[in-house]
Amino acid sequence: QEQLVESGGGLVQAGGSLRLSCAASGRTFSNYPMAWFRQAPGKEREFVAAVSGTTSNTFYADSVKGRFTISRDKAENTVYLQMNSLKPEDTAVYYCSADRSLATTLEGRGDYWGQGTQVTVSS
Fold first, then answer.
1. What residues form DSSP beta bridges with 82?
2. φ, ψ for residue 112 (rounded to 5)?
3. Alpha-carbon dihedral of residues 107, 108, 109, 113, nearest 10 degrees?
4. What separation in angstroms does the CA of 85 have from each of 13, 40, 112?
5. Spatial distance between the Cα atoms of 42 and 83, rounded to a whole number of angstroms
6. How many helices (H) and strands (E) are present in the chain, helices listed first?
7. What is the share, in percent, of the chain residues with pLDDT greater than 70?
8. What distances in angstroms separate CA 45 from CA 33, 68, 88, one per listed residue?
9. Structural contact between residues 19 and 104, judged by C-beta atoms closer than 8 angstroms
10. Which residues in 70-81 are b (16+ Cβ under 10 Å) and which e?
11. pLDDT tens per residue, range 11-25
12. HSE-up of residue 120 (Cα within 13 Å, Cβ side)
């Protein structure tokens, strides 16, 4: 059974850093586009970052450009999100997603989703 499992969330002070991991299992996602989304309380889920399947091109929301970096280890079937210079407005549950289609992944309509990991940034 295909599964995405996020980890690495926690409580951090503003200006700090966290590294999220998304471990895939049940199938090889190495050539699947994968993305991170987040959802804050009372807000809609929003796109954060994505990495394409074959070329590993990266995409970022304007709000995180220059602060967050998405990367993948195909051998480990894992995607990472390095988050630096964190702000209180980055507080949210962060979800990992994957799909065969990059467009579908970017639109938040991917077939595969993890359970989420909480990131809380204190001011």
1. 19, 69
2. -120, 135
3. 150
4. 9, 18, 29
5. 22
6. 1, 11
7. 100
8. 18, 17, 17
9. no
10. bebeeeebbbbb
11. 999 999 999 999 998
12. 5
Contact assessment for residue 36 and residue 93, using Cβ atoms and an 8 Å cutoff: no
Please name the amino acid found at residue 67: R
The amino acid that residue 48 corresponds to is: V
Is the model's pLDDT at 62 over the cut of 90?
A: yes
Beta-sheet pairing, 10-13 with 117-122: parallel
CA 61 vs CA 24, 28, 41, 77, 96: distances in Å: 23, 26, 19, 23, 15
| Chain position carrying tokens 């309509």 | 109
SS3 state of residue 102: helix
